[in-house]
Q: What sequence folds into this?
């Protein structure tokens, strides 16, 4: 079966996400056909969606202007998977505590943007993630953390007591960047183990 | 619920973290700003980051004299104003200016030929820094030397402050052409190319195998309109720096928004047509072909 994977390609590390979903699919003997989402009409053709890292202000502006936001909400409402990383997590949330970001409201969390400080505070570290046997190589870049989670949200990993990876139904979101490392286990968790299994 | 494994394993300023930051800027527009108010406008226009400096390149040209790093107080003000990353420019080879920018909280340092060169012989050793660097290049050899020194992002030099895109086009084409040629070469021919072009050979082989630069590659230097920005994207750039082109335009808000939208729709002429309408006059500029060689900035720091 060919998996149609839509990468929201407004801005950010789009090609890294495209490569990561192709790698993850190949590990499951599937082909991922990647579609870049920059205009309305593409999301409804996709089996899974990826919301990349980048600048949340820039990304959310475009999604709202072009009407792609409503399509993503419908995708999630239909129970189809979405992986959102870093800025993607901020955009997917219900509250970014900043009126410069228009949220998609598909993940019931409150987010603290740039919670770790500036770029010099960005880091990589091994992170224990629920459901993974060994720590995941997590890369945090001007990363957000999650302040509050709704009742339906499962916390998969935390850093210093604050959630950095969560799942709510078909949505998996991380404040770090699994697409920047060759490790496909977060993609497995988001796409291949739960929903499509 | 799990906890972090071991905080001792935390690493800052690695290549992965620095190059990763640059990757997050892809598909975006980074705008030069000289005041807090301009930074606010840039963020509202959809800029992914702002470059704080004392004067835009067009004004640096007019003013003459020595161009230096901006007052750190300005960087602080701008950091306080916007939520997007804030970058600062240091003189080529001026390690201390870069240290000050890093200490002030700059998310990326631009070791820039737009400022007066501080060291005629050496660039900053960028590997020593936690903050990532961007450097200009006119060709692949220059680009790979800068990456070898630790640059996490490359941009074309273009000819800053002119509003004439032709040098940015030339530099991007130089880089792309050389990568295509390398990709078609045998191993020993690539080694020879590396020697002739004074480029680190490991990076030459890596670039040839990937078919692209090992780091993000932006356009800069003379980009003044939405069409200029889209052209550079069509030539394979990952994103755009706009210097004098936004706040030197008749209507900076309209121009800033239009350039951001043009980058987003760079391959869609119908969309570009609408984006380019009614945005006021672009900066006046100065054509490169009429500029005396000694006034050009691009020859600094090769």
A:
């Amino acid at each position: 079966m060919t998996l149609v994977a839509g990468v929201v390609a407004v801005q950010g590390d789009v090609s890294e996400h495209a490569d990561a979903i192709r790698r993850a699919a190949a590990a499951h003997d599937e082909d991922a056909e990647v579609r870049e989402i920059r205009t309305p009409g593409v999301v409804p053709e996709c089996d899974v969606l990826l919301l990349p890292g980048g600048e949340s202000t820039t990304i959310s502006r475009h999604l709202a202007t072009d009407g792609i936001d409503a399509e993503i909400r419908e995708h999630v409402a239909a129970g189809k998977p979405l992986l959102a990383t870093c800025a993607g997590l901020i955009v997917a949330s219900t509250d970014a505590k900043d009126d410069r970001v228009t949220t998609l409201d598909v993940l019931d969390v409150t987010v603290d943007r740039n919670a770790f400080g500036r770029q010099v505070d960005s880091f990589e570290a091994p992170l224990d993630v629920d459901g993974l046997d060994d720590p995941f190589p997590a890369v945090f870049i001007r990363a957000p953390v999650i302040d509050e989670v709704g009742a339906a949200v499962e916390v998969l990993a935390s850093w210093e007591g604050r959630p950095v990876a969560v799942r709510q139904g078909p949505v998996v979101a991380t404040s770090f960047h699994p697409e920047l490392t060759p490790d496909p286990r977060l993609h497995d968790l988001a796409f291949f183990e739960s929903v499509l299994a | 619920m799990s906890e972090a494994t071991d905080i001792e394993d935390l690493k800052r300023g690695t290549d992965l973290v620095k190059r990763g930051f640059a990757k997050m800027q892809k598909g975006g527009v980074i705008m030069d700003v000289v005041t807090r108010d301009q930074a606010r406008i840039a963020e509202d226009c959809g800029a992914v980051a702002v470059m704080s400096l004392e004067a835009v390149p067009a004004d640096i040209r007019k003013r003459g004299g020595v161009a230096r790093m901006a007052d750190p107080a300005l960087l602080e003000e701008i950091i306080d104003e916007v939520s997007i990353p804030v970058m600062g420019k240091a003189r080529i080879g001026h390690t201390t200016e870069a240290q000050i920018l890093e200490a002030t909280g700059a998310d990326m340092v631009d070791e820039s030929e737009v400022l007066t060169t501080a060291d005629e012989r050496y660039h900053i050793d960028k590997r020593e820094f936690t903050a990532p660097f961007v450097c200009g290049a006119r060709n692949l050899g220059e680009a790979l030397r800068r990456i070898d020194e630790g640059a996490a992002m490359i941009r074309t030099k273009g000819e800053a402050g002119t509003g004439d895109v032709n040098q940015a086009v030339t530099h991007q084409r130089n880089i792309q052409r050389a990568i295509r040629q390398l990709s078609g070469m045998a191993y020993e021919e690539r080694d020879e190319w590396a020697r002739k072009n004074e480029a680190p050979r490991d990076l030459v082989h890596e670039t040839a195998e990937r078919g692209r630069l090992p780091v993000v590659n932006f356009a800069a230097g003379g980009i003044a309109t939405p069409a200029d920005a889209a052209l550079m994207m069509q030539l394979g750039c990952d994103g755009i720096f706009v210097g004098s082109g936004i706040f030197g335009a008749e209507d900076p808000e309209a121009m800033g928004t239009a350039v951001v939208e043009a980058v987003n729709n760079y391959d869609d002429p119908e969309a570009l047509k609408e984006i380019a309408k009614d945005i006021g006059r672009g900066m006046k500029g100065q054509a490169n072909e009429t500029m005396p060689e000694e006034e050009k900035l691009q020859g600094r720091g090769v």
Notes: Chain A touches chain B through 50 residues (CB under 8 Å). Chain A is about 25% helix and 30% strand.
